[in-house]
Amino acid sequence: MPNAVRYLVFDTESVADAALVAKLRYAGEALEPAAAVRRYRDELMAKYETDFIPYSFQIPISVVVGKVTAEFRLEDVVVLDEPLFRPHVITEYFWRGWEKYRRPTLVSFNGRGFDLPLLELAAFRYGLSVPGWFQASGKSFEQPRSRYNLAAHIDLCELLTNFGATRFTGGLNLAANLLGKPGKMDVHGDMVQDMYEAGRLAEINDYCRCDVLDTYFVFLRTRVLLGQLALGAEQQLIADTKRWLEGKADGVAAFRRYLEHWGDWPNPWAAGSPNESPPPTSGEIRP
Predict the structure, then answer these.
(1) Pairing of strands 58-69, 74-79
(2) Is 219 part of any domain?
(3) β-strands 58-69, 105-108: how paired?
(4) pLDDT tens, 160-185?
(5) Residue whose C-alpha is closest to residue 181's, from 107, 245, 233
(6) Does the residue 278 lie in any domain?
(7) 69-119 per-position pLDDT tens digit
(8) Which of 96-100, 152-156, 261-265, 283-287 has the lowest mean pLDDT?
(9) What's 97's DSSP letter?
(10) For residue 44, what are the domain limits?
(11) Least enclosed by CB within 10 Å: which of 65, 114, 186, 201?
């Protein structure tokens, strides 16, 4: 049932709008769109040591959403507009899906800085209305877009950095690896543009699926951190999710790949651990 979904864990992949880059960055130079993107990437790399084109020049070509219940159980992972992956349809499905499931809490890793601005701008570009998200007439601190409205959006990167007070060097890849999960495998974000130009859309969406799984497991651990989920319950949810992935793996290459690189969190409280020690009780300070 739609009302059973309490959280939408999501991730996006995007590519440059090559025609827009050619028109705005190199007006009057008669550059082919693909050549304009290559030139812009080269300029960014020379100046910033990264060739990632700003989101304002990009369009979404993959959005994957994990549906999670109020009990933090992963119910499904869906790829929007598969297998066509049309940017305007992807954008519509994302925002209409959020409404359909009665505006569940969005969960991302650095979504505040990239994914949501990208999807907001895409709605602007494609003429979509999203009044429930913008709520222009509401009090600023109650609006879903408010940075501190955690009922609307939990950005796990902001949580781990105290809303940007520190830098989280290593990103989602590091956070996932701390928990024994695969993180980045054969594909990294800076490869997506080249993969798209080579027609490897299915692989991009598999990469996005794996990022959503990593984000889900990081989300679970933050619920332990916040006292909303016991560590034992988190471990049970992880075991249940692994079994769910195993049941789906024959039909989803991304799940097979994720399971091949699966790792278990090295629990220092577990019996037999080299550092075995009973977990401290609430309020207990030990030397």
Answers:
(1) antiparallel
(2) yes
(3) unpaired
(4) 999 999 999 999 999 999 999 999 88
(5) 245
(6) no
(7) 999 999 999 999 999 999 999 999 999 999 999 999 999 999 999 999 999
(8) 283-287
(9) H
(10) 2-260
(11) 186
Find the mean pLDDT for residues 139-157: 92
Mean pLDDT of 210-216: 98
Cβ neighbours of residue 122 under 8 Å, at least 6 residues apart?
A: 59, 60, 87, 88, 90, 91, 128
**CATH code (residue 229):** 3.30.420.10
| Residue 71 maps to a domain | yes
Give me the phi and psi of 67, to 5 degrees please. Answer: -90, 125
In this structure, the number of other CB atoms found within 10 A of the CB of residue 95 comes to: 18
**What is the secondary structure of 152-173 as a DSSP string?**
TEEEHHHHHTTTTTS--TTHHH
Domain count, the chain: 1
Retrieve residue 238's tokens.
Answer: 């992880």
Assigned domain for 281 exists:
no
Give the span between the Cα atoms of 219 and 201, in whole angstroms: 27
d(CA 120, CA 145): 10
Phi and psi of 55, rounded to 5°? -60, -25
| Under 8 Å between Cβ of 234 and 221 | yes
Long-range contacts of 235-242, Cβ-Cβ distance < 8 Å, separation of 24 or more = 235/265, 235/267, 237/72, 237/73, 237/74, 238/265, 240/73, 241/74, 241/216, 241/217
Q: What is the pTM of this model?
A: 0.92
What's the CA gap between 152 and 13, in Å, rounded? 21
With 60 as the cut, is the pLDDT of residue 286 above it? no
> Average of pLDDT values for 234-254?
97
DSSP-assigned beta bridge partners for residue 65: 10, 78
